[in-house]
Each structure stands twice: as C-alpha cells, then as structure tokens.
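Could you help me review a protein record that somebody else here produced? What it holds is a sequence and that sequence's fold in token form. I need someone to confirm that the token line plausibly describes how this chain folds. Take the sequence as given and treat only the tokens as open to question. This is what I was given:
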Amino acid sequence: MFGILVTTDGRILKAYSGQICGRSDWDGYVPPVYDYLQPQGYFKRHEAEIVALHDAGKPTRERSAALQRWLFSKFVLCSPTGEKRSVRDVFTDWAVANHSKQTLPPGGTGECCAPKLLHYANCHNMVPLALTEFWYGKSPKGEIRHHGMTYEPCQAKCQPILPFLLGDRLPEVLGGRPVSKPVTQLKVLYEDPWLIAVDKPAGMLSVPGKRDSYCAEKILYNQLTSKLSTLNSQLYVRMVHRLDMDTSGILLAAKTSEVYKAMQRQFALHENVHKEYIAVLSGNMNENQNDNLSPSLTGEGRGGAISLPLSPDFYNRPRQIVDYEKGKEAITEYEFLSPNVVKLCPLTGRTHQLRVHCAHPDGLGMPILGDPLYGCEPADRMYLHARKLSFVHPVTGQEITIESPLPFEV
C-alpha cells in the first residue's frame, strides 16, 4: 500500500506500508516511526537468536513476546499538539475506551502509510489537509485489492491509533463513505399480523451498529409506533436477516419473538428460503471468462455456481477473504441477464458473500459496480439489490414471495 498526505501549506508527503525489499528507508518517502531493520540493531540480533532457538526445537514464545513488547515501546507517536506516546499505550487506551477485546496492538501496528505520514507531519509542525492510500500491484492471495484503487486505513492496526495522530481533524482529513439521506418512513412491501417486509435504501444499516443507531429496524419500529392510538409497550420489531449497508432491497422483520426465532432458523439453514439479487458489474462477461466456473450456458443466460469459502479479514473488518483452508462454505448460483448484469441466488448466507464471489478472480472476476470494499469503479451507489425473497410462513405454512422493483436501470 502506498500513501500520500497533502498539508495545508501545499507540501506533499509519500509513504509505503511495511517494507520494500527489506528496507523501510528508501529516499523520497517519509521514514518509519522506528527503524528496527538495521542489520546489527537490537531487534535483528534478538530476532536471529529466537530463530536459532526455534530451529533447535527450543521454546521461544516468551522471548518473542518480550521482543514484541520492546518493539512497541520504541514506536513512539507524536500527536498534533506535540504529545508523544508509545503505540502500545495509545492502542490500549483506545481499546479500553471502546470496550474492545483486543487490548494489545497486532504485529505491524504503526508501520502502515497513514501512521507514518501523520506522525512525520506532526513531528515537523505540518497540518494535514487530506490523506489517501492506494494499492499497487497484484492482489494478495485470498484478498481482493485492485491496482491503483484507494482504500481506507486498516481497521485492526490503524483505526485505534489514528484518533491520537489526528485529534479533532480525523473525519475532516480521512473523509468517509457517503450515507443515504435520512428518512423516517420505509416502503412496506408485505405485512400480516406476524411479519412485515420493507424496501431498504442503499446506505442504511439494517440494524443498529456499534456507533450508529440510525437503521431500518429503528425506523420501522418508529413507523409502526406512530400508527398506534396509544403507546404499546409490547410492540415487537426484529429484523430476521440483514442486508449490507450499501445493498438495497427486501428486508424482513418479525412482529413476535416466536416468529423471529422460527424465521431465524429458516434463514440460518436456508430451509425453504430463496433469495434473488440483481447486480450491475464492473466489466463485461464476454471479456472475463473464468474457466474455473464451468458455466452451464454461454452468452446472455450464461449461468452456473460459484463455491468459494470465506473467512473474516481480521485486520480489515468488515472485509472478507477467500480462505481455502479455514473458510466456511459459501455457494452462489448466478445467471447473466446481459454482459454486465447478473442475477445472484445465494445458497448460503456468509457476510459479503455475493460481493466477494463477484469480485474475486476465482469467482466472476468482476466486482459489483460502486462496491466501496471490493470494487474497482466508483459510482453513486453500490449496484446490488435484493429483488425477490421467498419463504414458508412459520404460522400459516404458506409459501410467501415478496418482490422489490429495481431502483436503478440495467
């Protein structure tokens, strides 16, 4: 990853994450917060001793942990006010304040572009104006990164220390993903005494997040409450499944706890549940043939199935990676409706399943247009819509089919 920081006085700083050819001190780039790669330095000498002990079959865990603690004590960050604190102290304080289970920084914390650039700027009394990071080269195995595309700072290593490095200017310098315009009413697509389905717009959370309660579930609750002549403390509204924030379409909620549990079981096991999504892709089916997919059809109507196991990217939540060793099974049926429009039917319910299956080279190899995490082409929204949902009603036993019109042209 490479990064560029523009300061308020017009200066431009450059950095790269980690090392290039075993060095972190190439000319033209800001220096590391702490250079531990010197051949005869403390870190390299003790690292060599640990490697020798490991090769000899001797325990090294305690010595490795001690070396890591020493290293984090040397990574001393400078704030905009000139305050200096170690990476470990900054990370731990953030973790405690945010109730995070990860109280110690992961290896490599402080070595990414953003911390390097901001630390250097603070040390030299420069005021950051804007910062961006972009990927250069091929994507790592399992991950989805596109050459030349910009990405937000990583969640596990950078997010906990950036507030210290930027202070009140955090949102101003780093920006953020645009969200939908606030709404107070959701379009109802289906309703009976036990269930209600609404049309969620793109840019809205399905359920409350860690720091944001503005979501479809809350809006629907208020929407139903406003229809009551008297306050009903027994009113129950729970989403039985979720759509990604950037995905639009059908979202189903239960009105009783019993129905909620029954529908949760259906969705978890994919029993009698059929989901259909429409996606506009970046690229063209005729230019992105993937022999691994063994499509059953050719041309428009070309279809088949994608099976790529998924695991969380722990350093970059909520991103997911393809993990053939430890990943959970994820299967998606697809059918092309035109060279860049595809119908997607997930047979499993993994996080970001459709987005990864479209974007990954072992899948369709064509990201969803406007996907902020896995895409390669910016757009006014992510072009993924939950168009149809079928299930067996947990009370009546009838098959229910709900449809939502496409909010974009294909």
In short: Residues 294-299 have pLDDT under 50 and may be disordered. The longest helix spans residues 42-55. The first strand starts at residue 2 and ends at 7.
